Amino acid sequence: TGYDMEDAMIVNKASWERGFAHGSVYKSEFIDLSEKIKQGDDSLVFGVKPGDPRIVQKLDDDGLPFIGAQLQYGDPYYSYLNLNTGESLMYYKSKENCIVDNIKVCSNDTGSGKFKCICITMRVPRNPTIGDKFASRHGQKGILSRLWPAEDMPFTESGMVPDILFNPHGFPSRMTIGMLIESMAGKSAALHGLCHDATPFIFSEENSALEYFGEMLKAAGYNFYGTERLYSGISGVELEADIFIGVVYYQRLRHMVSDKFQVRTTGARDKVTNQPIGGRNVQGGIRFGEMERDALLAHGTSFLLHDRLFNCSDRSVAHVCVKCGSLLSPLLEKPPPSWSAMRNRKYNCTLCNRSDTIDTVSVPYVFRYFVAELAAMNIKVKLDVI
Fold first, then answer.
1. Where does the RNA polymerase Rpb2 domain start and stop, copy by copy (predicted)?
2. How much of the chain exceeds pLDDT 90, in percent?
């Protein structure tokens, strides 16, 4: 189902447009002015300069955003006054738009503290997107892999179009029979207008839940096992297989693409190894680990492996002495007395005292760091330049 072999599901696009699984993420941020000043200093207070055109429409007299205000990147977030030096304005720095939901004034444990700490709660509305995670109440997880048009979805004889098509290959291994029973129970409850008692252990081997709900489905004119004949939404032809269809409670999980996607073209590098830094919050690179390396080796993609681990990582051009093989001895000549001769400076090997034996090689920068570490332990590394 969808573009994945396992744990993927297709969602009816019309249901999605009607608000299927729409949710909001709440984020709270505590702002404490007492952390910005010295002990016993009361020079910082929340507020704004009167008549400031930048923030008079965005913040109230206390320097806080209005309840229900929509914030975008770069909007005034809050403002506080330094009674000694002047105003300090903070801007909203998140890339995701939000709505101010609540603002609370915090104090110390005794309640005698001054107006120094606030808590701003923001609401971020989110529609389900490709890659978001869902699950039933039986551990049957599913990833939204495709929003399918309602006119192309399969439909029943009565014209009903399902909201979710999930992959059946998760049932044999997980053995979540409760989800199948829930589907039959929900379907029979909808047909008869009942509210079933879901107390555990009320059924026995003589009177099983399958037979109980199956008989209710049969009494309503449906198949005993909860299956129906569906028709293709594209061709209108009846599908050959009996398809299990019913009512199941699905919930949206907190694992969302908006919180986890990561991409990097260029950015900061580590000062020691000269490799891209890691971490999504600092726009770091995605780690290309040992297993990823082994996968490329197994496929024989040597040029791709060279590109990932060398060109896109810490490629550097180093000077090496061809005669003695030293990577550390080639150094720039002493600065000449005239600025015009600066560009003509050459690398000179301090061991051989020659400049015609210097050549350039492309090596990982971490290798140069490793050679310097070995030299600190009195271990010499000699390179053979071909």
1. 284-384
2. 64
